[in-house]
């Protein structure tokens, strides 16, 4: 039974004060908070298991290896990957995207086409631009509309026999729009293109089934899912991961090294050069256990309630405009007060203990589309409350009074 009062007790940071006021943490789309269960695992790891993995015959190394590999199985089960070796540990979403973009350098040629969406985070734009520069491929963009939704009919007109890759986020970090990735994947596959879905913003709210989606690559960051920073995973279909060359060279990713020739390790180690974030991987497994114990259905329905409540209350403020008004959106509200810079609103909210994000949210093309410098973004998690939303709303009213 979902009880937010009980859940909040798991997050020690939620009881701290900021600027003399109880913290109201609404910057969850940037990073989520960490439950005690995950903190305990991190402390336990460094207190009892710390060792390098995969190489040692001694007990500590073997125990750390077991914990790290068990976490990979948990992550595999969570995303419903067919094989554990389709789960590649990374340092986060950005690393996962760059790994794939780098690998495709060897597979693309001039004349090939790549499609991205107008709703992307810079992490899912810049690596593809760099890939185009390296290979001579060209980049096409799925446009968006005033609601912050992708123009799917126009996407279909961009597809042709030259389309090799399609990149789209599952949920927009700037607006919260949930994109119709099932349809995008199906249509892209009809012309033989591979699809990478950026799941950085969906994974905290939705439990994706990569086999049911038939997606080729899916990338996430642990720190958006109650886990630590500096770790994430790339899911890739085995056939694609076998086709891509290694990303980085080094220890762990080789089968045999001589000065004449090196052969590479099998998946997943081919893509995991060097000593990884061992503790981070283990703690990511615990974070996934934690979120599953709360339950993704309960999380989605509670967060939707928060979204509706906050939308209604904020829209009562005259001169407040919300950007991203799709019917299909998650618990993110991007807004501006008429004639007031988002940074100023964010600064006043901070004085009241309310943490929101202001700026372009690493999604400048979206801001350009709306012809604004940025927005104030309040993003809610399952441990937030309606009472906290009331504090935000009062804070926004105060900011409006002070800055008008
Ligand atoms: C949609 C999206 N993609 C990619 C990223 C980059 O994630 P990371 O910084 O963890 O690599 C973010 C982070 O906010 C994001 O929201």
From TrEMBL:
Record-level Gene Ontology MF annotations: cysteine desulfurase activity; pyridoxal phosphate binding
InterPro entries (alphabetical): Aminotrans_V_dom, Aminotrans_V_PyrdxlP_BS, Cys_dSase_SufS, Cysteine_dSase, PyrdxlP-dep_Trfase, PyrdxlP-dep_Trfase_major, PyrdxlP-dep_Trfase_small
Gene3D superfamilies membership: Aspartate Aminotransferase, domain 1, Type I PLP-dependent aspartate aminotransferase-like (Major domain)
Keyword Nucleotidyltransferase found: no
A single BP term in Gene Ontology: cysteine metabolic process
Cofactor(s) required for function per UniProt: pyridoxal 5'-phosphate
Domain Aminotransferase class V: 24-392
Record keyword Cell inner membrane present: no
Broadest EC class assigned to this enzyme: transferase
EC numbers, comma separated: 2.8.1.7
PANTHER family, sorted: CYSTEINE DESULFURASE, CYSTEINE DESULFURASE 1, CHLOROPLASTIC
Sequence similarity: Belongs to the class-V pyridoxal-phosphate-dependent aminotransferase family. Csd subfamily.
Name recorded for this polypeptide: Cysteine desulfurase
Species this protein is from: Neotamlana sedimentorum
């Amino acid at each position: 039974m979902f009880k937010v009062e009980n859940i909040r007790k798991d997050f020690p940071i939620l009881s701290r004060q900021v600027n003399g006021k109880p913290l109201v943490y609404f910057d969850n789309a940037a990073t989520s908070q960490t439950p005690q269960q995950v903190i305990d695992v991190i402390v336990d790891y460094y207190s009892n298991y710390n060792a390098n993995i995969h190489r040692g015959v001694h007990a500590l190394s073997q125990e750390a290896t077991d914990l790290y590999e068990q976490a990979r199985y948990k992550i595999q089960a969570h995303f419903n990957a067919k094989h554990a070796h389709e789960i590649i540990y990374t340092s986060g979403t950005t690393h996962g995207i760059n790994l794939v973009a780098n690998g495709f350098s060897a597979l693309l040629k001039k004349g090939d086409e790549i499609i991205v969406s107008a709703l992307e985070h810079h992490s899912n734009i810049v690596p593809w631009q760099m890939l185009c520069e390296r290979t001579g491929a060209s980049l096409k963009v799925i446009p968006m509309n005033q609601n912050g939704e992708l123009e799917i009919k126009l996407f279909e007109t961009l597809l042709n026999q030259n389309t090799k890759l399609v990149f789209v986020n599952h949920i927009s970090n700037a607006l919260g729009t949930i994109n119709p990735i099932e349809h995008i994947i199906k249509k892209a596959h009809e012309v033989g293109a591979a699809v990478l879905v950026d799941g950085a913003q969906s994974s905290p709210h939705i439990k994706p089934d990569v086999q049911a989606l038939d997606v080729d690559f899916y990338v996430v960051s642990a720190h958006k899912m109650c886990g630590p920073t500096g770790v994430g995973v790339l899911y890739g279909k085995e056939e694609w991961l076998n086709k891509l060359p290694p990303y980085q060279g080094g220890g762990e990713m080789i089968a045999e090294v001589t000065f004449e020739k090196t052969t590479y390790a099998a998946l997943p180690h081919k893509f995991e050069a060097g000593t990884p974030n061992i503790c981070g991987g283990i703690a990511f497994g615990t974070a996934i256990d934690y979120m599953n114990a709360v339950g993704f259905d309960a999380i989605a329905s509670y967060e939707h309630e928060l979204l509706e409540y906050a939308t209604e209350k904020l829209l009562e403020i005259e001169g407040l405009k919300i950007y991203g008004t799709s019917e299909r959106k998650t618990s993110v509200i991007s807004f501006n007060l008429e004639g007031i810079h988002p940074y100023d609103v964010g600064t006043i909210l901070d004085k009241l203990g309310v943490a929101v994000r202001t700026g372009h949210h690493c999604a400048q093309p979206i801001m350009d589309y709306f012809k604004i410098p940025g927005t104030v973004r309040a993003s809610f998690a399952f441990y937030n409350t309606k009472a906290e939303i009331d504090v935000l709303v009062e804070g926004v009213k105060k900011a409006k009074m002070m800055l008008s």
